[in-house]
């Protein structure tokens, strides 16, 4: 979608709105009744599973991981091997960036319809409801997706720290995917072998205090287009919510734990046995909140489709085969709206979009590099 074709209208910087001391919010941020965070069932008592990565692939912990993937699609990871000092430094430098004057942050602008830089992502129309959030999003790996001009030079250690942090998170994603493969009865290297040179991006989300948190969302409900996503959230307050059995479950921060969720790619590969899960962020009237999110996905030239192990007469093929780059383009040019982006891959939704041979599930060649 060309930048010139996208008209997004007035998009205020929410930190600047907060600094004015306003007691309400602009209409573009006010959600319709059913979309407001207070509407619907919110559960603060349930907790997503906690996985001790240091105990994997021990039988008990591997079974806990399997249940977490099957029943939640979300879990927190402790004892993950990433130094606490590095996590703290990444959080502190991200916060320092968001505290810079607006004119300094605007040196790294996110273009309308773009997904890298500072600003608002996933905004494609003038009447679209906006999230109460500022973002800095950057492509990390492979090198060709990087846009160096959008990497902040202030704070001084930002680039160096982000590269070290991203390398550690990449290693964690690889280890977790190996264990997730084991929970499915697959060889540990299954996903690594098929994913090629994985795409990795990071997005820092900053949610300033909001005078009317009951009317807005910090981040609209969505699932992720990744294979796995790793989120580091600060301890200031809870804001992430996961949809579970029709209720929004609050994810309470654990010091130096990392939140992991399964993305659309794994739902397709497992033919729905493991599902990506809708999640959202809510705001707070008194406190700001920061999260650092890493998306880890197959290479763009990888073809995805349900693995033959998960297709049978009892469980027919639910997703068509598609090129992951094609899906990524579809995802980043769609607004965040629950799991609607995955309709792209569902056979009952895609039959009019794909050739007949693409909508059938051969037991061979389900996932291959092109």
Can you describe this structure?
- It comes from Digitaria exilis.
- GO terms for molecular function: metal ion binding; oxidoreductase activity.
- This is Fe2OG dioxygenase domain-containing protein.
- Keywords: Iron, Metal-binding, Oxidoreductase.
- The chain is globular.
- It has one domain (3-301): Jelly Rolls (Sandwich).
- The model is unreliable at 349-370 (pLDDT under 50).
- By secondary structure, it is of the alpha+beta class.
- The chain is 24% helix and 20% strand.
- The strands form three sheets. Strands 2-3-11-8-13-6-5-4 form an eight-stranded mixed sheet. A five-stranded mixed sheet has the order 1-10-9-12-7, with no helix packed on it.
- The chain has helices at 14-19, 59-71, 84-98, 102-105, 158-183, 190-195, 264-269, 324-332, 347-350; strands spanning 41-43, 50-52, 74-78, 117-119, 134-141, 199-207, 219-222, 228-233, 240-244, 247-250, 258-262, 279-281, 289-297, 302-304, 322-323, 368-369.
């Amino acid at each position: 979608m060309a930048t010139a074709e996208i008209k997004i209208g007035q998009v205020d910087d929410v930190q600047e709105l907060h600094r004015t001391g306003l007691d309400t919010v602009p209409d573009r941020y006010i959600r319709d009744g059913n979309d407001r965070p207070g509407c619907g069932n919110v559960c603060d008592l349930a907790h997503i599973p906690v996985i001790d990565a240091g105990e994997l692939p021990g039988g008990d912990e591997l079974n806990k991981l399997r249940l977490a993937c099957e029943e939640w699609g979300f879990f927190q990871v402790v004892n993950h091997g990433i130094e606490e000092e590095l996590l703290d430094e990444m959080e502190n430098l991200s916060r320092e960036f968001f505290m810079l004057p607006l004119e300094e942050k605007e040196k790294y602008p996110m273009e309308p319809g773009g997904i890298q830089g500072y600003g608002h992502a996933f905004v494609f129309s003038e009447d679209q409801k906006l999230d109460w959030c500022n973002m800095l999003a950057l492509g990390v790996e492979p090198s060709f997706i990087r846009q160096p001009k959008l990497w902040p030079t202030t704070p001084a250690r930002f680039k160096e720290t982000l590269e070290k942090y991203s390398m550690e998170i990449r290693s964690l994603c690889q280890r977790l995917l190996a264990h997730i493969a084991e929970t499915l009865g697959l060889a540990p290297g299954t996903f690594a072998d098929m994913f090629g040179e994985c795409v990795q991006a990071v997005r820092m989300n900053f949610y300033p205090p909001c005078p009317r948190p009951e009317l807005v969302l910090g981040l609209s409900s969505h699932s992720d287009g990744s294979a796995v996503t790793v989120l580091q959230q600060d301890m200031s307050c809870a804001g992430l919510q996961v949809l579970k059995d029709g209720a929004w479950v609050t994810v309470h921060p654990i010091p130096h734990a990392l939140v992991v969720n399964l993305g659309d790619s794994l739902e397709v590969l497992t033919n729905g046995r493991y599902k990506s899960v809708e999640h959202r962020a809510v705001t707070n009237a008194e406190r700001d909140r920061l999260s650092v999110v890493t998306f880890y996905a197959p290479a763009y030239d990888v073809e995805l489709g349900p693995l033959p192990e998960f297709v049978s007469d009892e469980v027919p093929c639910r997703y068509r085969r598609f090129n992951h780059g094609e899906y990524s383009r579809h995802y980043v040019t769609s607004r965040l709206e629950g799991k609607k982006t995955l309709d792209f891959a569902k056979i009952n939704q895609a039959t009019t979009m794909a050739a007949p041979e693409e909508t059938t599930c051969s037991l061979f060649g389900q996932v291959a590099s092109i």
